[in-house]
Specification:
Blueprint (H helix, E strand, L loop, with lengths): L18 H7 L2 E6 L3 H5 L2 H9 L3 E3 L2 H9 L5 H9 L10 H26 L6 E5 L8 H15 L4 E6 L4 H10 L4 E6 L2 H20 L9 E6 L1 H17 L3 H8 L5 H16 L3 H7 L7 E5 L12 H4 L6 E5 L1 H10 L10 H13 L4 H28 L14 E3 L2 H16 L2 H6 L20 H7 L1 H14 L3 E5 L3 H13 L7 E5 L4 H10 L5 E6 L6 H17 L9 E5 L4 H8 L4 E4 L13 H10 L3 H14 L10 H14 L4 E6 L6 H13 L7 E4 L13 E8 L5 H12 L4 E6 L5 H19 L7 H20 L9 E3 L2 E4 L2 H11 L5 H9 L7 E6 L5 H18 L2 E6 L7 H7 L4 E7 L15 H18 L3 E6 L4 H21 L1
Parallel strand pairs: 1-2, 1-8, 2-3, 3-4, 4-5, 5-6, 6-7, 7-8, 10-11, 10-12, 12-13, 13-14, 15-16, 15-17, 17-18, 21-22, 21-23, 23-24
Antiparallel strand pairs: 9-18, 19-20, 20-24
Helix pairs in contact: 4-17, 6-17, 7-8, 8-9, 9-12, 10-11, 12-16, 18-28, 20-27, 21-26, 22-26, 22-29, 27-31, 28-31, 29-31, 29-36, 32-37, 33-34, 34-38, 35-38
């Protein structure tokens, strides 16, 4: 799989060393494993040749499929081809259309690389085009198509890709004898490579015998690398899990990540032997060039491995490395260029011998990956033809929906100027090149792993399918995801969007320390038939850790004392404390996150996709749809046609113009997407006194209740829209409010939205001049919570606190500054309604009102608090927010504390009717929740926020009734002021 062409236009500063160019001095050629029309037409390919020393390009149907479906680059050309008719007035077939556009791209790329071809005396400068993967096992048809493509492209520096299958070997020999350049693809086994090398030599010898010139004939043998480790490591992991012998486990672990590099290094040893000695010297004397080994599949699939592992470990003379864009970016940034191809050859031989001793046959491995590779390319080709054939009368539309926006003249002009600046300054290139100067120049480059995660996930899509099959076979009735923030919000979106899928467990999500909420979820579970997912990036987050402790013991009791480790899955970063806990308790699986992806950007990593697989979703389909958005947003897409840059420009520019409250409207079928977006926007942008305040689940009102600080974004599920939403938003739009419309065709398109908004948020962060990847104020609340829980562990009680008002069944708390301001405003008429009046009267134009509910999150409580927020919105004409703690601490809490000081906060707490102990801890869930609420409030106060805490007691329903009544009375008084 390939990732977007982020490297293709990446710029390095003139004085910086470029490890990519250093490879040339070591005898290795760098080719790009990617092609797209815009890469050619915008000058990106030419720049790579000049700046990175790029000397070749490879393509395949999968690459073309993504380029066509993920962009509008080919729409006009396809329309022209559709209009063509032959003498019988027969439309061109999908295959003919694909070939025409592919040949055009290959010809143009070959022309750009022609100077390299001539300068290197035909050693480099090649562009590869593949015969149909459907012909992988048909010799004669492969030869016929190769000849036709060779003639059709008509460039001396083209290579025809032919698979190294048993049926492909005789075709290779014949094509070489005819003077056709061949890129032999899908080589995994040394034995297969040996046959291919023999075919190449025999073809040259036949050509020489016929008296023809052998010097122009070029060939490479594409030896695939990382896919070997993906399969072997999976087999090793199963064996490690199956044994309890420590020595055996250590021996097997030592073999992880060793097979692919060892296999390739030994293939290079054969290359050196084959292309030396009398037979070869005879051909060399006639001007023949060797059939160089080309390393393919060099992106790192396992996040635990160095991202440039397969490039750094296979550097040597007379080799080619075809590198996908993301890996090229990474190597340019931090790769080490030194000769490694012949490092520790005895060790490589021993590694393969040890695998055989462990019961892993390399022959079986290479046979399997060959079969899978042939199928993968064939499936991609079929998908490509299907996409082209969907509409025979119109150009094939991209499978990505772009936004439409309604902005006033000055706002539209400001956004256009911003997009133009991104174009002129090459900022899209900087983003894909992970250039931290695009933001604050600190650590941003370390947090951009989400840019290429989709294609990495697609390369291991089979593992998600295997997990789903395993879960289905086990017959679990429920799955419980335990996490916070980024670890729980994506799974919650998917659970609420897709619902329960037949044959798979019902997914429940726990992200609250409220004892009543934990009990309510537990009542829904059959603990003996539940699979538990503990999700924490750092592995140190308090909430998922205590959730795990609690439910591990509950599951153990349900299983009659049997250890339930095989019913637990951990999703965490490599080396985290949670990984160690999972290993010690023999969890069924430990899925590893990517350290360079922050929690709120992790939806398309294992933090989102492992729960999706457990739930029974078609993860491969979901990722394929996401991939289309990735390619639509890549570096070769102009800024004014890049969906994420367009959205980010609107978000960032309008926020700078004072419209920093983004009202999110989502169709009922995708309603929970707003909660995920809320965290992404708030936690990413709310810092340094700046930020975007997302407004989720605020029902649409009449136009007059909105101020001039709003932007409305409507994510409309086109297959199931709400006519009421349509009508209400039209009135708001007609009143002149800025509105962005984003159509979502299908629930599986949520993968596209995850990526669109991640990149758009990064763009908005750049425009605002902040680091969108850190969350300093979230940590501040955690620190306060730790102080309070530590105090409880020492003394058995939280520090005493005293309300400044008590009455009507509620108590009011605040820091001294807020309490004094409210006392003075109320004067001698102390009552709940009067204190609420004084608090709400502090709301001014451009402010927002946020309710922070540290109570059970259920329908009744949310309904009551929604009535409070809407009453405030309708009277004060300000944006309103509603969140439940502690989950909002990990999302909007960052913006509330670190963003603009325009919030007026109402924290709602309660006494727990029945607390819940935590195994192995002195504190309870109720104590944790109380500490979190108090710690959260303390940071708000420390940051000078206008905050009031309403404590409801044990009867939450009665307390909420009193709060609503008091709010209505307070607002009525405000209206008469």
């Amino acid at each position: 799989m390939t990732t977007p062409a982020q490297t293709t236009l990446g710029e390095s500063s003139p004085q910086a060393r470029n490890p990519l160019k250093e490879l040339e001095a070591l005898g290795q050629s760098v080719w790009l494993d990617f092609i797209r029309r815009n890469l050619i037409t915008t000058g990106g390919l030419k720049r790579m040749v000049e700046q990175d020393g790029l000397s070749g390009v490879t393509s395949n149907p999968s690459i073309f499929e993504k380029a066509i479906s993920g962009s509008t680059d080919y729409a006009e050309f396809i329309a022209q081809l559709e209009a063509q008719r032959d003498g019988a007035e027969h439309s061109l077939s999908a295959g003919e259309i694909f070939e025409a556009l592919a040949v055009r791209d290959i010809q143009d790329a070959a022309d750009i690389l022609r100077p390299v071809y001539e300068r290197s005396q035909r050693h480099d400068g090649y562009v590869s085009i593949e015969v149909s993967p459907l012909l992988a096992h048909e010799t004669e048809k492969t030869m016929a198509e190769a000849r036709r493509l060779w003639k059709e492209v008509g460039r001396p520096n083209v290579m025809i890709k032919v698979p190294g299958t048993p049926e492909g070997v005789p075709a290779i020999q014949q094509l070489i004898s005819e003077g056709i350049n061949v890129n032999v693809t899908l080589l995994f086994a040394q034995a297969a490579y040996e046959k291919v090398a023999e075919a190449f030599l025999a073809g040259l010898e036949k050509r020489a015998t016929q008296g023809q010139d052998v010097s122009p004939v070029a060939s490479v043998a594409s030896f695939f690398v990382s896919r070997i480790d993906t399969l072997v490591d999976g087999l090793l992991a199963a064996k490690i899990k199956a044994t309890s012998n420590g020595e055996e486990q250590a021996r097997l672990k030592a073999l992880l990540g060793k097979a692919a590099i060892a296999n390739a290094r030994l293939a290079y040893q054969f290359y050196k032997r084959e292309f030396s000695g009398p037979r070869w010297e005879k051909l060399r004397a006639r001007g023949a060039q060797t059939q160089r080994l080309l390393w393919a599949s060099t992106s790192t699939k396992n996040p635990a491995y160095r991202d440039v592992l397969y490039v750094e470990e296979l550097i040597g003379p007379d080799t080619v490395d075809t590198i996908p864009p993301a890996t090229m970016d990474a190597f340019r940034e931090h790769g080490k260029a030194e000769l490694t191809i012949e490092k520790d050859i005895p060790g490589a031989q021993q590694a393969l011998a040890n695998l055989e001793s462990a019961g892993i046959s390399m022959k079986q491995v290479t046979d399997q990956v060959l079969d899978e590779g042939v199928k993968l390319f064939a499936d991609a080709f079929e998908k490509l033809l299907e996409a082209i054939g969907k509409n025979r009368t119109q150009p094939v539309p991209p499978q990505v929906y772009r936004q439409a926006q309604s902005l006033s003249g000055d706002l539209e002009g400001a956004v256009k100027s911003t997009v133009d600046d991104w174009t002129m300054s090459g900022k899209v290139r900087k983003l894909w090149a992970r250039d931290a100067s695009l933001w604050t120049g600190t650590d941003e480059s370390q947090w951009l792993g989400w840019l290429d995660i989709v294609d990495k996930q697609l390369q291991q899509a089979g593992s998600f399918k295997s997990l789903a099959e395993q879960i289905k076979k086990a017959g679990f009735t429920h799955a419980l995801l335990m996490g916070m923030g980024g670890s729980s919000l994506c799974p919650e979106v998917l659970k609420l969007t897709f619902g329960r899928i037949d044959g798979f467990p019902e997914m429940l999500v726990l992200d609250s320390t409220d004892p009543a909420q934990i009990r309510a979820i537990e009542k829904k579970l059959d603990l003996s038939k539940t699979i538990f997912i503990v999700s924490s990036k750092s592995g140190t987050t308090l909430e998922p850790n205590i959730f795990q402790q609690y439910f591990y013991e509950r599951a153990k009791q349900a299983l009659g004392g049997k250890d339930p480790g095989d019913r637990f899955i951990a999703v965490t970063d490599p080396g985290s404390p949670l990984e160690k806990v999972g290993a010690s308790l023999h969890f069924q699986q430990i899925a590893q996150g990517v350290p360079s992806i922050g929690g709120r950007y992790s939806a398309l990593s294992d933090f989102g996709m492992v729960p999706a697989a457990v739930q029974g979703m078609d993860v491969a389909r979901f990722l394929e749809r996401a991939s289309e958005m990735v390619h639509a947003c890549d570096v070769s897409a102009p800024a004014d046609n890049n969906p994420a840059v367009q959205l980010g420009a609107v978000l960032g520019m309008l926020a700078k113009r004072g419209r920093d409250k983004v009202t999110l409207i989502t169709s009922p079928g995708i309603a929970d997407l707003g909660a995920w977006l809320e965290q992404l926007l708030a936690e990413s942008t709310g810092k340094q006194g700046k930020g975007i305040i997302p407004v989720d689940r605020e029902s649409l009102g009449e136009p007059e209740v909105y101020g001039n600080d709003r932007l409305f974004v409507y994510l409309r599920l086109t297959s199931a829209p709400s006519t009421a939403q349509d009508a209400a938003l039209k009135k708001i739009e007609d009143a002149g409010q800025p509105v962005v419309h984003i159509p979502v065709a299908d629930v599986y398109d949520l993968g596209q939205e995850f990526f669109r908004w991640e990149m758009a948020t990064a763009v908005a962060g750049s425009i605002l001049g902040i680091n969108p990847f850190n969350q300093p104020d979230v940590e501040a609340s955690k620190d306060e919570t730790r102080k309070l829980t530590s105090e409880y562990e020492k003394t058995g009680a939280l520090p005493a606190e005293k309300p400044f008002f008590e009455g009507g069944g509620v108590r009011l708390f605040a820091d001294e500054r807020n309490a004094e301001e409210l006392r003075q405003a109320v004067g001698g008429e102390a009552s709940l309604a009067n204190y609420l009046r004084a608090h709400l009267a502090r709301l001014e134009g451009g402010d927002y009102f946020a309710i922070l509910g540290y109570i059970q999150m259920n329908e009744a409580h949310e309904r009551a608090l929604q009535m409070v927020r809407h009453a405030v919105r309708n009277t004060k004409h300000v944006a309103t927010c509603l969140g439940f703690g502690p989950r909002f601490q990990h999302s909007t809490g960052q913006a509330y504390k670190g963003g603009p000081n325009t919030g007026v906060f109402l924290q709602v707490t309660c006494d727990d009717a029945e607390d819940l102990p935590i195994p192995g801890q002195k504190f309870t869930f109720g104590i944790v929740k109380a500490a979190q609420a108090r710690g959260d409030f303390a940071v708000l106060a420390e940051r000078g926020r206008r905050a009031l805490r309403v404590h409801l007691g044990k009867d939450v329903a009665a307390g909420l009734t009193a709060l609503l009544a008091g709010t209505r009375e307070a607002l009525k008084a405000i209206e008469t002021m």
